[in-house]
Design brief:
By secondary structure, the chain is mainly α. The chain has helices at 3-23, 28-31, 42-61, 77-95, 119-143, 153-159; strands spanning 104-108, 114-118.
Length: 170
């Protein structure tokens, strides 16, 4: 039904897992590193990215994850990994059925007004927002001497066997 979107969202989930995995061995001072021009520290950026994605998902599906309202929580990487897995499953369920990409939502805008935003634009924001902040985390990782993961679509396709190897001809 939404076959073309499934790869986009699975790449998004895979890339978030790759970044979380790359951060598992970091010390607290490393997780709290900030670099000018990025959102914030590594851990704050990861928390923001996953919580924002949950908000977008809630808006589109009408379903709120149990963990979403714990705004004062400061989850660690393990909990963020669980939340990211939950989101991946929610997107798979959402994309398994038809949806109206033109259905609009009233969204408060940065200029203190409201706008009618189509579901297709919200979906686009999910992917853009995730890419933007994962890139910022990777920039910060590089700045502290930690190799950042390769998050490209080709890496995703190879890693998930979405692009299986062709057997050698004999």
């Amino acid at each position: 039904m939404n076959d073309g979107l499934i790869d986009f969202f699975r790449h998004n989930a895979w890339a978030t897992r790759q970044v979380l995995d790359a951060c598992r061995e970091l010390t607290d001072p490393q997780l709290n590193t900030t670099v000018p021009g990025t959102f914030g520290s590594i851990i704050d950026t990861l928390r923001h990215t996953i919580r924002s994605e949950a908000g977008y998902c809630r808006r589109l599906t009408g379903e709120e994850p149990d963990w979403f309202q714990r705004a004062s929580d400061q989850p660690g990487l393990g909990e963020l990994m669980l939340w990211a897995g939950d989101l991946a499953a929610r997107w798979d369920r959402f994309l398994s059925a038809e949806f109206d990409a033109e259905r609009t939502f009233v969204i408060p805008w940065h200029d203190d007004g409201d706008r009618l935003v189509p579901a297709g634009v919200v979906l686009t924001q999910v992917l853009h927002h995730g890419n933007e902040h994962r890139t910022q985390v990777c920039t910060t990782l590089t700045s502290i001497g930690v190799e950042s993961p390769a998050l490209g679509v080709w890496e995703f396709a190879a890693d998930t066997d979405r692009a299986p190897r062709v057997t050698a001809r004999g």
